[in-house]
Amino acid sequence: MTATRIDAALIRRLPKAVLHDHLDGGLRPATLVELAGEAGHTLPTTDPDELAAWYYEAANSGDLVRYIATFAHTLAVLQTREGLLRAAEEYVLDLAADGVVYGEVRYAPELNTDGGLTLAEVVETVQEGLAAGMAKAAAAGTPVRVGTLLCGMRMFDRVREAADLAVAFRDAGVVGFDIAGAEDGFPPADHLDAFAHLRRENVPFTIHAGEAHGLPSIHQAVQVCGAQRIGHGVRITDDIVDGKLGRLAGWVRDRRIALEMCPTSNLQTGAASSIAEHPVTALRELGFRVTLNTDNRLVSGTTMTREMSLLVEQAGWGVEDLRTVTVNALKSAFIPFDERTALIEDVVLPGYAAAL
């Protein structure tokens, strides 16, 4: 690691990439208050600052199920075309303001149909909002490329429908697929038909695994379902003893299966004990393709700048370490190789070279 001293202002200027970020977990507090008022939905408070604090405190339960329960309020305001358009556009603008040059946003369309929108209409609306945000960001001189991951909720029965949507919209901004929701008790192998369909149709996918459940969930995601990336994956450390990798950990590292690590979120759900001891540092040093992510910016009260700053301050990271995870993310992004290469060579590496 480098000893370069950096502060939040410099980190904010660095080009960043985020692969694991949920649309319904990243609304602006003021937007949530306004949309809730229009929808007649009651929030814990209508003061944006107090609401942001409520979310952060409510999520600090150390329990994934309770963490997920905080999404009831954001989902309540994402049931209309207007709400989805605004959330998607602001999502992009917030990434651009944080120095993100590539982002993948994920959400489950089945959770946005209570207002009468069809699954396809939900996807079309979100893509329209994302496109508007990218156009505004480019016009402001802070371009950001955003791809969409559609999620199936692993505890429900519409995962195959979500996979079909990913196939249908893969040429309209959707770059991949995921399953989300409560991990323990809902193994990824329950949805083998969806993953087989995605493989047949050449649609890449990631799977939430190794967060609330251990090595069996990672093994299923990778070896049974065929995931190209792992959402979180912190429990891969259970297969590493005194720096020696077990067979599963070795497979994940050697085949460059990216780990979408989310330090603040992992602390909140009890998947990690501290930023200083978060597995992302040790796994990076062992050569795993680790990436750094926000997961849910509202729920976790975070940004990419904050996640990077925490690792600099509490885990001794330097600019070179931040560059490594950024390049890792782009290498594993679900967009074509030439686009990934261009972002790395033309945007990320020059940006970090200027900082060094």
TrEMBL record:
| This protein's UniProt keywords | Hydrolase, Metal-binding, Nucleotide metabolism, Zinc
Q: Which cofactor does it need?
A: Zn(2+)
Residues annotated as binding Zn(2+):
H20, H22, H208, D295
Q: Which GO terms describe its molecular function?
A: 2'-deoxyadenosine deaminase activity; adenosine deaminase activity; zinc ion binding
Which Enzyme Commission number(s) are on file for it? Answer: 3.5.4.4
Q: What class of enzyme is it?
A: hydrolase
**Gene Ontology terms: biological process:** adenosine catabolic process; hypoxanthine salvage; inosine biosynthetic process; nucleotide metabolic process; purine ribonucleoside monophosphate biosynthetic process
For the site Important for catalytic activity, which positions are given? H232
List each copy of the Adenosine deaminase domain by range: 15-347
User: Which Gene3D superfamilies does UniProt cross-reference here?
Assistant: Metal-dependent hydrolases (3.20.20.140)
Q: Does the keyword Cytoplasm apply?
A: no
* Protein family (similarity comment): Belongs to the metallo-dependent hydrolases superfamily. Adenosine and AMP deaminases family. Adenosine deaminase subfamily.
Q: What is this protein called?
A: Adenosine deaminase
Species of the source: Streptomyces zinciresistens K42
